[in-house]
Amino acid sequence: MGNKPQININDSDYSEILRQAVAEIRVARTLIAKQVNSTANSVYWNLGKLLFEKQLEEGYGSGVVKQLSVDLKNEFPDMGLSPRNLWNMKLFYERYYLADQKLLQAVAVLPWGHNLLLINKVQSLEAVAYYANEAVTKGWSRDILLNAIKMDSYANFQKQIKSHNFRETLPGIDADYANEVFKDAYNLGFLGITEHIKELELEKRLVEKIKSFVLELGKGFSFIGNQYRLEYNGKEYFVDMLFFHRGLQSLVAIELKIGSFKAEYVGKMNLYLSLLDKLEKGENENPSVGIILCADKDHLDVEIALQDINKPIGVAEYQLLLPKEELQTLVLNEINATEGDNEQE
């Protein structure tokens, strides 16, 4: 009973079977969650529409909504139909009933708690669309969404100049998708690093907290290994970190650099991608993608380094700590938060 079952295939084949099985289960769970959220939000939307069309407003309509809450709770005690939540449903409908279909589809599959944050804390519909899409595609929890809003991630996103050659090296639709998947900067503050470290130490800490790193990378990434060994023509090569992205159907190689970007990093990554495509890429998979993570980069330096490269490579910065101003803002916001910020109903 306690004996390990006999496995008659090699470790690499088994690892691939396990990777695909885990990916399938995760996708299924995500789809089920989206269906549940979409159904619940549809009910909330219709209740909000009813209150909106009956022209009920907080004040003279409060008595009606309070009584409605009591009667609905008796009928559906598990639905969270408090007066506050009913007003939020009206606000939900009021906010989005004239919005475009793409935005409606994004908020429809978010958990209700996520939608409450967006309704109460984000003003522009453009910003709502950004946060909703980030939350959906990257599986953000409510806490991560709240921190992203408080850090004004949308404003930072608008300022970003992405450094990559995806449009020149990938087919149009894949290039657009890759552009959405990979960010210009990654926050590695979860590592708790407060002093200078070496690249191998950075890699070691990332591997130790690989779940947090995958969450920061975004949805769809599966970790394959670190110092991934490639052998060709009697020589060995080692990729710092290797992932597979289910949506892109591509291997993703990540190289970690402690200092600023240097042009020679691109040549090394180009070689790794050639070897991955030759030795590891599956028959039906897309070309491997490389990401060079460094502490700092100059967009023009990256642009010239990528000019004649035929493999898809992106260069991104990372932060080991939150910038001082953002950290202060987060602390002040928490101190000054009103009781209503945490109200779920």
Automatic annotation (TrEMBL):
Gene3D superfamilies: 3.40.1350.10. InterPro entries: PD-DEXK-like_domain, tRNA_endonuc-like_dom_sf, YhcG_C, YhcG_N. Residues 180-328 form the YhcG PDDEXK nuclease domain. Residues 23-155 form the YhcG N-terminal domain. This is DUF1016 domain-containing protein. It comes from Niabella ginsenosidivorans. GO terms for molecular function: nucleic acid binding. PANTHER family: BLR8175 PROTEIN, UNCHARACTERIZED PROTEIN YHCG-RELATED. Signal peptide: none annotated. It holds the Pfam family YhcG_C.
